[in-house]
Amino acid sequence: MKPPSLHLFTLQPGEVTPPIEGDGTWESEHPDIAVVSADGVITAVQEGYTLVLCNDNNGLSKVRAEVKVGNKAPPDSILKAVELAIRDWREAGGKVLEKKNVYTIWHNPAAKNGFGWCGAFVGYQFSGAGVPMDKAYRQKDAPPLQDGTPFAVSQASQTKLYEGFVSRNRISGIPQVGYYVVYGKKGSTPYTHIGLVTRVEDLGEGKFLLETVEGNLSNRIKRFSYVYDSVAERKERNIVPIPGHRQTQPETFYYDYVENFYLNVFGQTWY
Question: For each of the chain's 271 residues, which pLDDT tens digit applies?
Fold first, then answer.
């Protein structure tokens, strides 16, 4: 089955989009946030996030439009998770961590030799911040989470994390502070690595300056700053360096991202 065409909009209240081409019935999951006309014109109403869908007669989505309105602040528990992750980065001081460490023990104490811990690093922070976490990751009958309350998936595997967010309809192409980042690798799996968004700057035209903190890269905790191009012609090339004049914190950030990685999608921990 062909996936729905994807559109991403970051709007302010009162802004209107051009008509979106779609043959079917249009609906907004949260019309108090944004409404959509019969010909696919979206009007932002108030601060928040909603999905706008165009469904065919069988109820299958042909168009999926993500709409973020305004600049809603992340919940306190999400900010706490980000704060904890940055604290761990600072305390690690760039040192190499053992394969069995506090993050692997959090997820699976019985793993004597540890495991790839990028997902566990992020999950550990959300657990520490008291964010509700769901261990199930393939929930075909689970109701989607549509109220935007804080949520995370209590898994460490990149694939299981992705499946957990998908099963609860909490996948996004629009970055927000405190979202999981699911990276893919060119020519390989689309679920290769996990990071955490710590800052977002909307550059316009579908581009975002991101700052992240990420575990298990060369067995270290690292911070990155780069531009995510959500409308790149090729998804495998949607990470590009920020302009040179803005690369002012080399002691904090890596400005060249991992070769052959691309940004697949975000795990929506809140909206």
Answer: 678 889 999 999 999 999 999 889 999 999 999 999 999 999 999 999 999 999 988 888 899 999 999 999 999 999 999 999 999 999 999 999 999 999 999 999 999 999 999 999 999 999 999 999 999 888 777 777 878 999 999 999 999 999 999 999 899 999 999 999 999 999 999 999 999 999 999 999 999 999 999 999 999 999 999 999 999 999 999 999 999 999 999 999 999 999 999 999 999 999 9
* 81 and 56 within one domain: no
Greatest C-alpha distance within the chain: 58
Its domain, for residue 47, covers 5-69
Which domain CATH number covers 63?
2.60.40.1080
- In this prediction the pTM is 0.93
Residue 231: Cβ-neighbour burial (10 angstroms; 0-12, 13-18, 19+): exposed
Question: Do 13 and 117 have their domain in common?
Answer: no
The candidate with the shortest Cα–Cα distance to 32, out of 67, 75, 56, 5, is 67
Q: Do both 132 and 169 map to the same domain?
A: yes
